[in-house]
Amino acid sequence: MAKIKVVEFKRIESTNDYLKNNYQKLPTFTAVRTDYQTKGRGQFDRRWYSAYGKNLIFSLLLKDVLFDQLTLIKEWVKSSLFSLLGSYGLDVYFKEPNDIYVNDKKICGILIETKSNQTMFDYVIIGIGLNINQLFFPGLKATSMHIETKKSYSIRKVFSKLISNLLENYF
Predict the structure, then answer these.
(1) DSSP string, the chain
(2) Which of 5, 32, 120, 124 has the most CB atoms at less than 10 Å from its CB?
(3) Residue 46 pLDDT greater than 80, yes or no
Protein backbone atom coordinates (compact mmCIF):
# COMPACT_ATOMS: atom_id res chain seq x y z
CA MET A 1 0.00 0.00 0.00
CA ALA A 2 1.21 3.48 -0.85
CA LYS A 3 2.10 6.05 1.80
CA ILE A 4 1.43 9.74 1.54
CA LYS A 5 4.11 12.25 2.47
CA VAL A 6 2.53 15.38 3.96
CA VAL A 7 4.09 18.86 3.73
CA GLU A 8 2.29 21.54 5.75
CA PHE A 9 2.30 25.33 5.62
CA LYS A 10 0.47 27.94 7.68
CA ARG A 11 0.19 30.13 4.58
CA ILE A 12 1.14 29.64 0.94
CA GLU A 13 0.23 31.18 -2.40
CA SER A 14 -1.20 27.95 -3.85
CA THR A 15 -0.76 24.29 -2.93
CA ASN A 16 -1.16 23.29 -6.59
CA ASP A 17 1.51 25.80 -7.66
CA TYR A 18 3.88 24.59 -4.94
CA LEU A 19 3.64 21.04 -6.30
CA LYS A 20 3.98 22.21 -9.91
CA ASN A 21 7.15 24.11 -9.04
CA ASN A 22 8.66 21.31 -6.95
CA TYR A 23 7.32 18.06 -8.40
CA GLN A 24 10.68 16.88 -9.72
CA LYS A 25 12.19 16.69 -6.23
CA LEU A 26 9.11 15.32 -4.46
CA PRO A 27 7.91 11.71 -4.38
CA THR A 28 4.60 10.65 -5.85
CA PHE A 29 1.84 10.72 -3.22
CA THR A 30 3.08 13.99 -1.71
CA ALA A 31 0.27 16.04 -0.17
CA VAL A 32 0.68 19.76 0.53
CA ARG A 33 -1.75 21.15 3.11
CA THR A 34 -2.16 24.73 4.26
CA ASP A 35 -4.29 26.80 6.61
CA TYR A 36 -4.56 29.59 4.04
CA GLN A 37 -3.87 30.24 0.35
CA THR A 38 -3.22 33.75 -0.90
CA LYS A 39 -3.70 32.78 -4.56
CA GLY A 40 -6.04 29.82 -4.34
CA ARG A 41 -7.99 29.12 -7.51
CA GLY A 42 -10.57 26.80 -8.94
CA GLN A 43 -11.60 25.76 -12.40
CA PHE A 44 -11.05 28.37 -15.15
CA ASP A 45 -8.72 30.33 -12.82
CA ARG A 46 -11.64 31.41 -10.64
CA ARG A 47 -10.53 32.69 -7.23
CA TRP A 48 -10.99 30.19 -4.39
CA TYR A 49 -11.91 31.98 -1.18
CA SER A 50 -11.37 30.33 2.19
CA ALA A 51 -11.22 31.87 5.66
CA TYR A 52 -7.92 31.33 7.47
CA GLY A 53 -7.77 27.99 9.30
CA LYS A 54 -11.42 27.10 8.71
CA ASN A 55 -11.27 24.66 5.81
CA LEU A 56 -9.27 21.78 4.41
CA ILE A 57 -7.02 23.05 1.63
CA PHE A 58 -4.56 20.62 0.08
CA SER A 59 -3.14 19.21 -3.12
CA LEU A 60 -1.91 15.73 -3.92
CA LEU A 61 0.88 14.90 -6.38
CA LEU A 62 0.84 11.80 -8.56
CA LYS A 63 3.77 11.24 -10.92
CA ASP A 64 4.26 9.23 -14.11
CA VAL A 65 0.57 8.61 -14.71
CA LEU A 66 -0.68 6.86 -17.85
CA PHE A 67 -3.07 8.91 -19.98
CA ASP A 68 -5.92 6.42 -19.60
CA GLN A 69 -5.71 6.60 -15.80
CA LEU A 70 -6.97 10.20 -15.57
CA THR A 71 -10.64 9.17 -15.60
CA LEU A 72 -9.92 6.59 -12.89
CA ILE A 73 -8.16 9.25 -10.81
CA LYS A 74 -11.15 11.58 -11.03
CA GLU A 75 -13.51 8.80 -9.93
CA TRP A 76 -11.11 7.73 -7.15
CA VAL A 77 -11.00 11.24 -5.69
CA LYS A 78 -14.75 11.76 -6.06
CA SER A 79 -15.65 8.42 -4.42
CA SER A 80 -13.18 9.03 -1.57
CA LEU A 81 -14.76 12.44 -0.89
CA PHE A 82 -18.30 11.01 -1.12
CA SER A 83 -17.36 8.32 1.39
CA LEU A 84 -15.81 10.88 3.73
CA LEU A 85 -18.74 13.29 3.63
CA GLY A 86 -21.27 10.47 3.87
CA SER A 87 -19.56 9.30 7.07
CA TYR A 88 -20.52 12.67 8.58
CA GLY A 89 -24.15 12.20 7.55
CA LEU A 90 -24.03 14.48 4.52
CA ASP A 91 -26.02 13.60 1.40
CA VAL A 92 -23.80 14.93 -1.38
CA TYR A 93 -23.85 14.95 -5.16
CA PHE A 94 -21.39 15.81 -7.90
CA LYS A 95 -21.89 18.79 -10.20
CA GLU A 96 -19.75 19.00 -13.34
CA PRO A 97 -17.06 19.84 -13.91
CA ASN A 98 -15.52 19.46 -10.45
CA ASP A 99 -17.75 20.38 -7.52
CA ILE A 100 -19.43 18.53 -4.69
CA TYR A 101 -22.72 19.92 -3.44
CA VAL A 102 -25.04 19.38 -0.49
CA ASN A 103 -28.50 20.97 -0.29
CA ASP A 104 -27.87 22.88 -3.54
CA LYS A 105 -24.75 24.55 -2.13
CA LYS A 106 -21.09 23.91 -2.91
CA ILE A 107 -19.16 22.22 -0.11
CA CYS A 108 -16.06 21.08 -2.02
CA GLY A 109 -14.12 21.97 -5.14
CA ILE A 110 -11.62 19.81 -6.98
CA LEU A 111 -8.99 21.17 -9.38
CA ILE A 112 -6.94 18.70 -11.41
CA GLU A 113 -3.90 20.00 -13.30
CA THR A 114 -1.54 17.97 -15.46
CA LYS A 115 1.73 18.17 -17.34
CA SER A 116 2.42 15.59 -20.01
CA ASN A 117 5.09 14.33 -22.31
CA GLN A 118 4.48 12.16 -25.38
CA THR A 119 3.83 8.95 -23.47
CA MET A 120 2.24 9.90 -20.13
CA PHE A 121 1.53 12.61 -17.60
CA ASP A 122 4.68 13.80 -15.82
CA TYR A 123 2.32 14.78 -13.03
CA VAL A 124 -1.30 14.92 -12.05
CA ILE A 125 -1.97 17.40 -9.25
CA ILE A 126 -5.30 17.13 -7.46
CA GLY A 127 -6.28 20.24 -5.52
CA ILE A 128 -9.09 19.87 -2.99
CA GLY A 129 -10.85 22.62 -1.09
CA LEU A 130 -13.34 21.25 1.45
CA ASN A 131 -15.41 23.69 3.49
CA ILE A 132 -15.33 22.44 7.08
CA ASN A 133 -15.82 25.10 9.75
CA GLN A 134 -16.40 28.30 7.78
CA LEU A 135 -19.75 29.91 8.59
CA PHE A 136 -19.98 32.79 6.10
CA PHE A 137 -19.40 32.79 2.34
CA PRO A 138 -19.97 36.39 1.18
CA GLY A 139 -21.67 36.43 -2.20
CA LEU A 140 -21.25 32.69 -2.75
CA LYS A 141 -23.76 29.83 -2.87
CA ALA A 142 -21.66 27.66 -0.57
CA THR A 143 -21.92 25.70 2.65
CA SER A 144 -19.68 23.82 5.08
CA MET A 145 -19.77 20.70 7.20
CA HIS A 146 -20.33 22.93 10.25
CA ILE A 147 -23.31 24.71 8.70
CA GLU A 148 -24.90 21.44 7.57
CA THR A 149 -24.39 19.43 10.77
CA LYS A 150 -24.27 22.19 13.42
CA LYS A 151 -20.93 20.76 14.65
CA SER A 152 -17.30 21.93 14.55
CA TYR A 153 -14.64 19.57 13.26
CA SER A 154 -10.91 19.08 13.62
CA ILE A 155 -9.50 19.85 10.19
CA ARG A 156 -6.55 17.53 10.90
CA LYS A 157 -8.91 14.64 11.71
CA VAL A 158 -10.98 15.22 8.58
CA PHE A 159 -7.76 15.40 6.53
CA SER A 160 -6.46 12.19 8.10
CA LYS A 161 -9.73 10.43 7.38
CA LEU A 162 -9.71 11.60 3.76
CA ILE A 163 -6.10 10.45 3.31
CA SER A 164 -7.11 7.04 4.70
CA ASN A 165 -10.04 6.90 2.26
CA LEU A 166 -7.77 7.80 -0.65
CA LEU A 167 -5.27 5.10 0.28
CA GLU A 168 -7.96 2.46 0.85
CA ASN A 169 -9.69 3.23 -2.45
CA TYR A 170 -6.58 3.63 -4.61
CA PHE A 171 -7.00 1.65 -7.80
Answers:
(1) ----EEEEESSBS-HHHHHHHHGGGS-SSEEEEES-BSS-B-GGG-B----TTTSEEEEEEEEEE-GGGHHHHHHHHHHHHHHHHHHTT--EEEETTTEEEETTEEEEEEEEEEEE-SSSEEEEEEEEEE--S----TT--B--HHHHHS----HHHHHHHHHHHHHHH--
(2) 32
(3) no
What is the tally of structural domains in the chain? 1
pTM recorded for the entire structure: 0.93
**pLDDT tier at 129 (50, 70, 90 boundaries)?**
very high
Please state, in angstroms and rounded to a whole number, the distance separating the CA atoms of residues 106 and 97. 12
Average pLDDT over residues 152-167: 96
Structural domain boundaries, residue 31: 5-169
Tell me, what CATH number does 140's domain have? 3.30.930.10
